[in-house]
Amino acid sequence: MGKGDQTREAVLEFASARACTVGLEGLSIGTLAKELHMSKSGLFAHFQSKSALQVQVLEHASDRFVEEVIRPALRAPRGEARVRALFGLWIAWFHRQEHGCIFVAAITELDDRPGDARDALASQQRDWLDVIETVTATGVATGEFRADLDTRQFALDLYSIALMLHLTVRLLALPDAIPRADTAFENLLNGARA
Amino acid sequence: MGKGDQTREAVLEFASARACTVGLEGLSIGTLAKELHMSKSGLFAHFQSKSALQVQVLEHASDRFVEEVIRPALRAPRGEARVRALFGLWIAWFHRQEHGCIFVAAITELDDRPGDARDALASQQRDWLDVIETVTATGVATGEFRADLDTRQFALDLYSIALMLHLTVRLLALPDAIPRADTAFENLLNGARA
DNA sequence: GACAAAAACGAACGGTCGTACTATTCATGT
DNA sequence: ACATGAATAGTACGACCGTTCGTTTTTGTC
Q: Cα separation of B163 and B127, whole Å?
């Protein structure tokens, strides 16, 4: 990895953290450059436009997510254990993001702004839903979950619990946000079991 | 209502629609003025700062929400019918917002930005959760719902279904987004019934 | 250590940002 | 109809926006 890719990575790393607070549109080339102690034009040269930067920020974050959530979860035994690992690693990811999850932030920022960034995010989130569904299906295969379980519905329900957790923790600061999410998760599992 | 309040209302009405797309921070005095065919300074004079505009936009939208969702729902008979009315009017509100629900958009935009706007939004959403919980409690009172129902958990679960619907409809454009939300809602009701 | 390529820089562009002033037009009560 | 205050417009401000261009510094290779 040459010097170029090295600083590009550093920029994306910093920018993806910053975007959690100010949003993808709120990112500014000048501010990023200042905070990273480089020149505006030097930073800009790594991307050819701001929108390209935004897309690459999303891709960078997605790579992280795969590495830190999906891949470790797949090491858990198939079935309920893997579903639990997936959810647990997901909310651990949430809590590790000091300024919120960039995907959750981007979901509402981009949902009405057509463009490359929106397309990239939508594709990522559809993939993520598919992963949840596939992992859920291993629970059906092991017999832990009902044979007639609607795995798609399960995946959507699981996602909605995570979304709500993000809201209750970050904006509302409810003291019982985490146990509430746990309760919802256990209820979901109870309904899925054989 | 004098001329001043009249145009102020018009500005807030337009701005609250615009904010669904560009966000509260993305609102710009100059652009708003241009689109409303008035001068930047003339528009600005109605608010003393951009952040005051943002707070008033949220308050304006909240008044609308009370008028179009909460008040009509309270006219439904106590109990499950009222819960159904609340949820139905809520998602009808969603679908009426051509560019997304401003509250959903603001939730993730403001969750890491301390300030008046964030405080106002958090307060609104806590109140809204309380309304859902209170309405749910009427279902316990009528005996339609279990006496030991956790109304708080019910309110959070209901909210999470709505959040997920917003995501699946607006960003992911899933064709079965609405029936999926309906299914989740019916499952929630089934678990609550006596 | 020379040399080409890659990377970072500095300055400048036209524009827009929020905000502050002053001036002008309008609406309203009498 | 007129006076008065409210409402709107005009102008300017310093700062920052994304982007371009030409130059300088750094890097990697023989």
A: 17
Integer angstrom CA distances of residue B43 from A38, A74, B5, B16, B59:
38, 55, 12, 15, 18
Residue of A nearest to B172 (CA): A122
pLDDT digits (tens, 9 = 90+) for B138-157: 999 999 999 999 999 999 99
Provide CB contacts within 8 A for A32, sequence distance 6+.
A11, A14, A15, A18, A43
Query: Average pLDDT, stretch A142-171?
Result: 98
Cross-chain residue pair A164–B168, CB shorter than 8 Å: no
**How far, in Å, is the CA of A106 from the C1' of nucleotide D26?**
37
pTM for the structure as a whole: 0.96
Residue A103: burial class (beta carbons within 10 Å; 0-12, 13-18, 19+): buried
- CB proximity A46–strand C (7 Å threshold): yes
- What secondary structure letter does DSSP report for A178? H
| Angular region, A149: left φ>0, alpha ψ -120 to 50, beta rest | beta
> Contacts of residue B171 in chain A, CB cutoff 8 Å?
107, 110-111, 118, 121-122, 125
Q: Which tokens go with B83?
A: 């819960």
User: What does the alpha-carbon distance between residue A121 and residue B69 come to, in Å, rounded to a whole number?
Assistant: 31
Residue B21 · residue A113 · CB < 8 Å: yes
Measured distance CA(B149)–CA(B140) in Å, rounded: 7
Q: What's the one-letter identity of residue B135?
A: V
- Report the percentage of chain A scoring pLDDT > 90: 97
Cβ(A112)–Cβ(B99) under 8 Å? yes
